[in-house]
UniProtKB/TrEMBL annotation:
It holds the Pfam family IMS_C. Residues 222-244 are annotated as: Disordered. This is DNA polymerase Y-family little finger domain-containing protein. Gene3D superfamilies: 5' to 3' exonuclease, C-terminal subdomain. Residues 195-243 form the DUF4113 domain. GO terms for biological process: DNA repair; error-prone translesion synthesis; SOS response. Residues 232-244 have a biased composition (Polar residues). Keywords: DNA damage, DNA repair. The keyword DNA damage applies. It comes from the Bacteria. GO terms for molecular function: damaged DNA binding; DNA-directed DNA polymerase activity. GO terms for cellular component: cytosol.
Length: 244
């Protein structure tokens, strides 16, 4: 099947096939090896889902935060470009922890993650779209091994001087927590801290306790701008207007 032309893939024909062939993607194997993030930016989410499906990922709509029986995706567009790979890595660490929290909430573990970052095709300057796949030795929903694996896979592939505008993580190979047997002593696992982080944040507020740079109350570079929010007259008395 890998040697068949891309027109054998459902939904690829005509002008779309010609555009793919112009990029050197002529066979199903070529499409399978393509960078899904780059395909998304050059074409659409539909073609990105096709690439993911050819690589064994169940097709599912890609949204900012999606939880299904097949996958969990957490991604975000940045309000301003991020030039420093380490800061992109810190943003990915936050998204990984959000995905980790969703896994624990759903009572699931993930056996494979895909992390990605990309520049915007609509901004001047060079573009760079990168992704990395990691198959975990032991399926988990703990933030420590997930953050470590995501950063180790993605950050070395990032380039200084690029204007990264989006990043995220896709968790697949999901299974109910406790359903995957692990032989004692085969792989040393870090002490579980996910439930502790959840408990602290429930009591003292989201973001109070986190891994890496996230455990602060300072605005992070990838946070959405909130300067134009409407006043919270009904919930914050300090924002009530004073009439003299």
């Amino acid at each position: 099947m890998a040697a068949l032309p891309i027109t054998e893939v459902r939904g690829i024909a005509g002008r779309l096939a010609q555009r793919l062939e112009a990029l050197g993607i002529e066979t199903i194997a070529d499409l399978q090896d393509a960078d899904p993030v780059a395909i998304r930016h050059k074409f659409s989410v539909v073609q990105m889902r096709t690439v993911l499906e050819l690589n064994g990922f169940p097709a599912s709509p890609v949204e900012d935060e999606v939880t299904t029986k097949a996958q969990i995706l957490v991604s975000r567009s940045f309000p301003d470009p991020i030039w420093d790979p380490e800061i992109v890595g810190a943003a990915v660490a936050e998204f990984v922890q959000r995905a980790s929290r969703r896994l624990r909430t759903e009572g699931e573990v993930t056996g494979r993650i895909t992390v990605f970052a990309s520049t915007s095709p609509h901004r001047p300057g060079p573009t760079h779209n990168v992704s990395a796949h990691v198959r975990l030795g032991v399926p988990t929903n703990e933030p420590t091994p997930l953050v470590a694996a995501a950063r180790a896979a993605l950050v070395p592939k990032l380039m200084h001087g690029m204007q990264y505008m989006r990043a995220g993580i896709l968790c697949t190979d999901l299974a109910p927590e406790g359903s995957v047997p692990v032989l004692p002593g085969v792989l040393e696992q870090p002490a579980p801290i996910g439930e502790l982080i959840d408990a602290v944040n429930r009591r003292f507020g989201t973001g109070t306790l986190a891994l890496g740079r996230l455990g602060t109350h300072s605005p992070v570079p990838w946070a959405n701008h909130q300067a134009d929010l409407s006043p919270r007259y009904t919930t914050d008395g300090n924002e009530l207007r004073t009439v003299s």
